Amino acid sequence: MGLAKRIIPCLDVDNGRVVKGVQFVDIRDAGDPVEVAKRYNEQGADEITFLDITASSDDRETTVHMVEAIASQVFIPLTVGGGIRTCEDIRRMLNAGADKVGINTAAVFNPEFVREAAQRFGSQCIVVAIDAKKVSAEGEPDKWEIFTHGGRKPTGLDAVEWAKKMVEYGAGEILLTSMDRDGTKNGFDLGVTRAISEAVHVPVIASGGVGNLDHLVDGVIEGKADAVLAASIFHFGEYSIQEAKQRMTDAGIEMRL
Amino acid sequence: MSDMKKSTVAVIDYGMGNLHSVAKALEHVADENTSILVTSDPAVIDAADRVLLPGVGAIRDCIGEMHNAGLVPSIRKAMAEKPFLAICVGIQSLMSHSEENGGVDCLNHFQGNALFFGEKHTDHDGSKLKVPHMGWNQVKHTINHPLWANIPDNARFYFVHSFYVVPENKSEVAGTCDYGLEFCVALARDNVFAVQFHPEKSHKDGLQLYKNFLNWDGKP
Predict the structure, then answer these.
(1) Has residue B204 got a pLDDT over 70?
(2) Count H helices, E strands: chain B?
């Protein structure tokens, strides 16, 4: 009896529609974000992450309205990420009904922003998103580096050290995405998940690579993740949230059923 | 239409933002005769039939803003006479003192302190536990109370906090949770009820608790 591990479906939203994800070239439409969020809420999702991948900033207003619509109908925690660069962006999303915001690239370019945001809004609502890629060669000790721009630009920052630094600056949670695995359906990068989860005292959400329900189990048991995030396995009806929770429960993981 | 049957719920806004989800959840369960008013106006709080004290952010700012906005007399008045519900940092603000922010004196409605889990918090078997305590945990009812109506014992609620309350008077504990240690997550005395978790983020059981609050006559 204790705290349950969480399953978090992620909605990658482009121009007001849920799409399959940034890493996919053939973007598939997965529906209206509000309807999708409601469906996951009914299926027993523990939280929902809304990731705004719209390229143009003109559509931010649309995002605000969607967050409002989701937050009025879905009574579970909602994290909003994508394009969060200033405290004003955070304030707008929280006022629209988001419970947490995800800060990614802005943290890399200006770590002080994380500190400022945590002091102003509280660590509980600051999720730092980390996109990591393995950079060590075969036979070398494992090493992962932070990448930006959808995994195209290296930063020279060591992923584990960066996670520790972000927590020191006030991150209340880490959303860790393996850029090697994202979109592959080959499972999480369990090495980096475990390395970061063991290095920090805040919860770590594993992301990137989920292709089946055993991957979710592995993320918690081997990767030591506190929560697992997935998108496409849920969007197209391959698996429901209930099925995922049942598989995890059967594997001995404490879940909210 | 007569105002006689109208009931109002004041959600206290002390400038810390994000009361949207609390208000939306209350609206979701309220009937057509109940108005939910998010307010920082002491007169509105004084006139309301029931009062909800949310909690957002760190305790020093919370208590500071309550004082700055001149809300403390209205909060005390409401706690003395009508159904009153405090959530999350709200429960901590009702204690005597909190360890957060280097130590902050709080409203002292419930005697006792808010303590930090610590960055090296461990489970009963010695394994590492993350802080904040974030996610869905089971709430055990330690008393029967109208606010627990139609909520199963050990139902899961959503938590996100690093500090927990330790009341001096154990008979005021209404619910507990286990996270490395068993701690108090709900307090009750007379017309005041306070919870550490977020009912507005706790799906159907959370909405049920809000519904119970709207139906509560303030008697234990």
Answers:
(1) yes
(2) 6, 13
Distance (Å) from the C-alpha of residue B171 to the closest C-alpha of chain A? 23
- What domains lie within chain B, and their CATH numbers? 7-215 (3.40.50.880)
CB within 8 Å: A123 and B132: yes
Model confidence at A90: pLDDT above 60: yes
* Averaged pLDDT of chain B: 94
The residue whose two tokens read 């007399």 is B73
The model carries a pTM of 0.94
Amino acid letter for position A101 = V
CA distance B186 to chain A (A): 17
Residue A257 maps to a domain: no
- Domain range for residue A71? 6-250
Residue A100 lies in a domain: yes
CB–CB of B21 and A97 under 8 A? yes
Query: Is A131 assigned a catalytic role?
Result: yes
A53 touches chain B (CB under 8 A): no
Query: For the ranges A71-85, A201-215, B8-22, which has the lowest average pLDDT?
Result: B8-22
CATH of the domain at A162: 3.20.20.70
Smallest CA-to-CA distance from A123 within A131, A113, A112, A115 is with A115
CB pairs under 8 A between A and B: 101
Distances (CA, A) of A220 to A227, A252, B122, B178: 7, 11, 18, 20
Is residue A79 within 8 angstroms of chain B, CB to CB?
no
Cβ within 8 Å, pair A41-B203: yes
